[in-house]
Amino acid sequence: MSYGLSVQLLQAVLPIEHAINAATVRNHVHGVAQRIDAELGDKQVFFIDGCERDWEQLPRPDMPLTVGLDGGYVHSNSQSSRKKGWIEVIAGKSVTDDGASKRFDFVNNYDDKPK
Questions:
Q1: Which residues, at least 6 apart from 65, have a Cβ–Cβ distance to it below 8 Å?
Q2: Burial per residue of 60-77, b for 16 or more beta-carbon CB atoms within 10 angstroms, e otherwise
Q3: How many other CB atoms are found less than 10 A from the CB of residue 7?
Q4: Total-model pTM
Q5: What is the 3-class SS of 43-73, one letter each residue?
Q6: 113 near 93, Cβ under 8 Å?
């Protein structure tokens, strides 16, 4: 979705007091992306232990498996500051060849007694 359409959607769904434009949304998205990328640390090239030549000996999965993964930051509408009231959410779904699916999500912390 373009930044211009994102602006229209945000203005239609959220109570935004000030005018925003596509450049503002783009700048915020890029700022958040750079901050998150900096938090990741060093990139992990391989996720399988051992030598590459031994990888062919690993067992193959029994059936095709499709996994979708997405994530983002969600904030409270009553947050007290720009740094408080945010949670990071990662969610996904795995689907086997026969159509059976499982959903999963992850948050790094939560408040079981919100104010």
A1: 94, 95, 96, 97
A2: eeeeeeeeeeeeeeeeee
A3: 19
A4: 0.38
A5: CCCCCCCCCHHHHHHCCCCCCCEEEEEEEEE
A6: no
> What order of strands is seen across the sheet that includes strand 86-96?
65-75, 86-96, 101-107
Rounded distance between C-alpha atoms, residue 56 and residue 54, angstroms? 5
Domain borders along the chain are 1-42, 59-115
Residue 73: partners with Cβ closer than 8 Å, 6 or more residues away: 32, 86, 87, 88, 89
Q: CA 33 to CA 38: how far, in whole Å?
A: 9
> Hey, what are 22's tokens?
């596509």
Whole-number Cα distances in Å, 86 to 61, 63, 70: 38, 38, 17
pLDDT in tens, 15-74: 888 888 889 888 988 998 888 888 877 777 666 777 878 877 887 766 677 888 888 877
Written as one letter, the residue type at 72 is G
